[in-house]
Design goal:
Helix content: 25-40%
Largest sheet: 5 strands, antiparallel
Catalytic activity: L-seryl-[protein] + ATP = O-phospho-L-seryl-[protein] + ADP + H(+); L-threonyl-[protein] + ATP = O-phospho-L-threonyl-[protein] + ADP + H(+)
Radius of gyration: 22 Å
InterPro entries: Kinase-like_dom_sf (IPR011009), Prot_kinase_dom (IPR000719), Protein_kinase_ATP_BS (IPR017441), Ser/Thr_kinase_AS (IPR008271)
Shape: globular
Structural class: alpha+beta
CATH topology of the largest domain: Transferase(Phosphotransferase), domain 1
CATH architecture of the largest domain: Orthogonal Bundle
Number of domains: 3
Pfam family, one: Pkinase
Order of helices and strands: EEEHHEEEHEEEEEEHHHHHHEHEEEEH
Low-confidence stretches: 311-335, 337-345
Strand order of the largest sheet: 1-2-3-5-4
Protein name: non-specific serine/threonine protein kinase
EC number: 2.7.11.1
Mean pLDDT: 88
């Protein structure tokens, strides 16, 4: 795809893809970079009712426009269509995914969480002031700009709950199960379901996981939470500081009427006890220090395999088989799964042309395999920008001097032990393994593992998430990389 009739931008590389859509970089005549969401209307027409789809994408565009011009919301620039394509031009999130840079089951330091949570709530406050509820707040939809500032993205399930002083209850069951409020299956206050989702996001920022797979009675973890009067003292809740615990409890009250409002969240003392990285405008005051703190937590131990035992294998769909022939079909949406038929959920993906044999020793991805902080400290001393330490490309990658045959043997062995569905395809410049599984929260993960030769005897192995929670995708990457060990994974 090089040109589209009537599209006033030059189309660049692919940044991501969805069921019916592709997100690509694009450039105007001043060489400014944007992200464009391209939807193939012919393909949509084969899969769903076009009038329903037209209403949904029109609503997405209109509500995103309403929420424009806030520093913590991805900017909407333009939209249009051709006979084949519908396109939406958006701000390019140059800093990549926030949660790609957060270690599963570890999280970030509290002052880093305070910084990002304050920016998230500032964006939500603005959105709600326009009468718009996002309804799909989750890690996939939190991106970063070139200085590491948070940007809320994807208005595919946004809804208008207030207009000219009049409010209404919403009733569409949308969202992602681990982040969705318990009342989402009935009528609900759009602002309060966003507050709930933000509470789960704060929990994930601090602890690197979510508290339950869904806030329903069939979730054992959520039932435990309710049984202790929503005041849990067990692990991992007891790892939270008193201030963070107090705030999260107020945001996760089962009764929406007792749940904190956005205003009360913003007034909570925890948000004001530490203002590290925050300028007077709320933007990042020290991008290099912030990037260094994010990267400091990313660690993969190559000395110990993280492959689970037989009793703790990754959960996948029933009767999944391992095939080595054709790419898998798209997994159908569940009732409360936010994969939008016309959207993709994140922007930056790996651009393998960035890394060559001559510059991999400065690739920040190597720092996650180091036993000491020496490599990261060296990067920090030389860094001039946020991306010099936290690149926009996803951190789920490693290098190897092993042969492709050996690498594939180890990858297939890992997939077999994890009971992960995998198919493969040999392309001109790379070999691709198509991956699909369910994470521990029973949510879908899909992506690809690519093996590409970037120099004689040097391979780049990239784990590119196409759909799913970035924390869970990183956890999957971490398990596989640790099982490969130092005999396969190149270290600094």
């Amino acid at each position: 795809m090089s040109t589209i009739e009537g599209f006033p931008y030059q189309i660049g590389r692919e940044l991501g893809e969805g069921a019916f859509a592709s997100v690509r970089a694009c450039f105007d005549d001043k060489a400014r970079v944007f992200a464009v969401k391209l939807v193939n209307k012919n393909y949509v027409a084969q899969k769903m009712n076009m009038s329903v789809w037209t209403r949904r994408i029109t609503s997405e565009i209109q509500l995103h426009k309403i929420c424009n011009n806030h520093k913590n919301i991805i900017h909407f620039y333009a939209s249009g269509d051709s006979p084949t394509w519908r396109w939406i031009v958006l701000e390019y999130a140059q800093g990549g995914d926030l949660f790609d840079k957060i270690e599963p089951d570890v999280g970030v330091d509290e002052d880093v969480a305070q910084f990002y949570f304050a920016q998230l709530m500032d964006g939500i406050k603005f959105m709600h002031s326009k009468g718009v509820a996002h309804r799909d707040l989750k890690p996939e939809n939190l991106l970063l700009d070139f200085n590491g500032n948070l940007k809320i993205s994807d208005f595919g399930f946004a809804a208008l709950f207030s207009y000219k002083g009049k409010t209404r209850l919403l009733n569409s069951a949308v969202g992602s199960p681990p982040y969705a409020a318990p009342e989402i299956l009935g009528q609900y206050d759009g602002a309060k379901v966003d507050v709930w989702s933000c509470g789960i996001i704060l929990f994930a920022l601090l602890l690197g996981t979510t508290p339950w797979d869904a806030a329903y009675d069939n979730s054992e973890e959520y039932v435990f939470f309710r049984d202790c009067n929503e005041r849990p003292s067990y692990h991992p809740w007891n790892q939270l500081s008193p201030g963070a615990y107090s705030l999260i409890m107020g945001m996760l009250r089962h009764n929406p009427q007792k749940r904190y409002s956005v205003q009360r969240v913003l007034q909570h003392p925890w948000l004001h006890t530490n203002i590290s990285f925050r300028s007077s405008s709320g933007a990042c005051s020290d991008p290099i220090a912030l990037a260094s703190r994010l990267m400091l937590k990313l660690r993969i131990d190559l000395n110990v395999s993280a492959i689970p035992t037989e009793t703790t294998k990754t959960r996948i769909e029933d009767n999944a088989a391992t095939s080595m022939t054709q790419p898998p079909a798209r997994i159908e949406d569940s009732l409360l799964d936010s994969r939008n038929e016309y959207s993709t959920l994140s922007q930056p993906v790996m651009d393998s042309t960035v890394f060559t044999a001559t510059n991999i020793d400065t690739d920040p991805a190597l720092s996650q395999f180091c036993d000491t902080t020496e490599f990261l400290e060296s990067l920090t001393q030389k860094a001039k920008r946020f991306e010099d330490i936290c690149p926009p490309e996803r951190m789920t990658r490693f290098y190897s001097r092993s042969s492709e045959t050996v690498i594939l043997q180890h990858l297939y062995d890992c997939m077999r032990k994890l009971a992960v569905s995998v198919t493969s395809k040999k392309e001109t410049k790379q070999t691709v393994l198509y991956i699909r599984l369910h994470d521990k929260r029973k949510c879908q993960l899909q992506g690809e593992i690519t093996i590409q030769s970037i120099a004689q005897g040097l391979k780049l192995i990239n784990f590119n998430k196409r759909f799913g929670d970035p924390l869970e995708w990183r956890k999957f990457f971490k398990i596989v990389a640790s099982s490969m060990g130092k005999s396969i994974v190149l270290t600094y």
